[in-house]
Specification:
The complex is a heterodimer of chains A (about 180) and B (about 325). Chain A is an alpha+beta fold. Chain A has one domain: Nonspecific Lipid-transfer Protein, Chain A (2-Layer Sandwich). Chain A has a five-stranded mixed β-sheet with strand order 3-2-1-4-5. In chain A, helix 3 packs across helix 7. Chain A is globular, with a radius of gyration of 17 Å. The N and C termini of chain A lie far apart (about 50 Å). The C terminus of chain A is likely disordered. Chain B has about 325 residues and is of the alpha/beta class. In chain B, the strands form three sheets. Chain B has an eight-stranded parallel β-barrel, surrounded by six helices. A three-stranded antiparallel β-sheet of chain B has the order 8-9-10, with no helix packed on it. A two-stranded antiparallel sheet of chain B has the order 11-12. In chain B, helix 1 packs parallel to helix 2, helix 1 runs parallel beside helix 9 and helix 3 crosses helix 4. The longest helix of chain B is centred in the C-terminal third of the chain and has 19 residues. Chain B is globular and about 60 Å long. The two termini of chain B are about 35 Å apart. Classes of the chains: A alpha+beta (about 180), B alpha/beta (about 325). The interface between A and B is medium-sized, with 32 and 38 residues.
Chain lengths: ~180, ~325
């Protein structure tokens, strides 16, 4: 494989991010726990896909996430972006802002996917089940991004930031229509 | 409620709350099995969720309509009986059904629960509607999406039941309840299994030339990079005929009849319906809000025009149509 400064930089960035894995995983696992506590039945909606790992791959981050949910809770791991399929039941990739908006239900999944904002590999039924389980869990942005004590106050602020960023991207850096 | 009842979809409790908060007068939903025509993985309500949903809706002054609108399978009728029992016990304001056996069972179980005839029954004549009204006490009929606006107006003049019409969302180009196209490829159909193009049979492949959408491995469409695609169903597939690849039955577009609200109201349509229980709370909140504004504007004597293009990005293929409502060839 030829030397590439870009590839080396990406590799170093990934390694650095992976070194920070424990606190990030702790935060994300708390978020999953919070969503499960709020709506204990929601993850059961995964049906036969419970316990199967999904790969969530924000293309603008140096790492990806492995998400496994079941009726009793779930777990998130920070992982290196796989170069080839690794047996995930489904892989969902896209820009971080689109993925966040999908997870908290503020974006329409069909519209985002069919407009090319997302790529889905694997079992489409598994992807649909995950989307429906997360919708039912009523996951909020603050659940994902901040400690529980700060979440209620920060959620509207975070929502505005994500809406603004997504609108800015759609309009080529000139956000409008977000109030 | 305005002059037309706004009936919105809910695939989950979160979606039901989003619809009601956005201004829905009624919300329709189904139970988590093949007794309703949106039997997708992870979607719909269990008995406890339905009870809580009905309580929530009633507190907010909204109604819950439960769709038990597939056709009972020989040997599997118990599931349809159970769904009816669950809906009645939850205090649903109406049951939406199509199958004669389901309609009869509802009426045997309760003489008071309101019955709406599902679009799946494909009732499009006064005679058919009269049969359902006289036999089962059906109060409302959801008319097929293949009828034109003038045909609906003619029907209403003689209909002994209220008429509800779809105004937004996925568009069935076949007469509902009689379409078996997807079963030829996937083995399942909306009428019996509650799914048209089941997601486990659907796949998407992105290549340098664009995205290929498949159903059970068969390529149904290919869209170039940057173009908005649609969910692969046989009726909206692109087929080669005489050397040209064209959408033989229907292009992948969504219904948006907001511009026809005034004429539908004038014709006597009692309720308008939004399709899309499978879409999620972001979709239902936006569509409900837009139609709420349009109906309220209409009731103030104002135009719906300012709201008519607010939803284009939610449409299948990014394109909208008034569908059969403006069918001019008849």
């Amino acid at each position: 494989m030829p030397f590439s400064a870009e590839r080396l930089f990406a590799r170093v960035l990934t390694d650095l991010t992976l070194a920070l894995r424990p606190p990030v995983e702790m935060l994300l696992n708390l978020a999953v726990r919070r969503a499960w506590q709020r709506s204990a039945n929601a993850f059961g909606r995964l049906g036969r896909f419970q316990g199967h790992p999904y790969l969530i791959d924000p293309e603008d981050l140096p790492v990806a996430f492995e998400l496994t949910l079941n009726a009793h809770g779930g777990a998130v791991k920070v992982v290196r972006r796989p170069l080839q399929p690794l047996g995930y039941v489904a892989e969902i990739s896209g820009e971080l802002m689109d993925l966040l908006a999908l997870f908290d239900g503020s974006a329409d999944a069909d519209a985002t996917f069919f407009a090319g904002g997302l790529t889905v590999r694997g079992d489409t039924g598994a992807v649909l089940a995950l989307h429906n389980a997360l919708e039912a869990a009523d996951l909020r942005l603050a659940d994902l991004l901040v400690p529980a004590a700060l979440a209620p106050g920060l959620d509207p602020v975070l929502q505005r930031i994500v809406d603004w960023r997504r609108a800015a991207r759609r309009t080529g850096g000139k956000p409008h229509g977000v109030h | 409620m305005g002059s037309i009842e706004l009936v919105c979809p809910a695939g989950s409790p979160a979606m039901l709350e989003a619809a009601i908060e956005a201004g829905a007068d009624s919300v329709y939903c189904g139970l988590r099995d093949e007794t309703n025509a949106r039997n997708f993985p992870g979607l719909n309500f269990d008995a406890a969720e339905l009870r809580r949903a009905v309580n929530f809706a009633h507190q907010k002054g909204a109604k819950v309509l439960v769709a038990i609108n597939t056709f009972a399978r020989a040997g599997g009728e118990e599931r349809w009986r159970t769904s009816v029992m669950t809906a009645v016990a939850a205090g649903a304001d109406a049951i939406i059904a199509a199958d004669l056996a389901v309609l009869a069972h509802v009426r045997e179980l309760s003489s008071t629960v309101r019955l709406h005839l599902s679009v799946q029954a494909a009732a499009n004549t006064p005679e058919a509607i009269r049969f359902y009204v006289e036999t089962f006490g059906v109060r409302r009929v959801v008319v097929p999406r293949v009828m034109s606006a003038s045909e609906i107006a003619d029907l209403i003049k003689e209909s002994p039941a209220e008429i509800e019409a779809f105004v937004f969302g996925g568009l069935c180009v076949m007469t509902e309840g009689r379409c078996a196209l997807s079963s030829y490829v996937s083995g399942q159909s909306p009428n019996l299994s509650g799914v048209c193009s089941p997601p486990e049979a659907v796949s998407f492949e992105r290549t340098a030339e664009g995205m290929v959408s498949r159903l059970s491995g068969l390529a149904l469409d290919k869209t170039p990079p940057g173009a908005t695609a649609g969910y692969p169903t046989l009726c909206k597939g692109r087929f080669a005929t005489d050397g040209d690849a064209t959408y033989l039955f229907e292009e992948p577009t969504s219904l948006n009849a907001m511009g026809l609200l005034a004429s539908l109201r004038q014709a006597g349509v009692k309720a308008v319906k939004i399709e899309g229980r499978q879409r999620g709370k972001a979709y239902v909140a936006r569509v409900t809000r837009a139609f709420r504004k349009a109906i309220d504007a209409l009731d103030r004597g104002e135009s719906t025009a300012p709201f008519e293009h607010m939803l284009t990005d939610l449409a299948e293929g990014g394109r909208e149509t008034e569908g059969a409502y403006n069918k001019r060839w008849r």
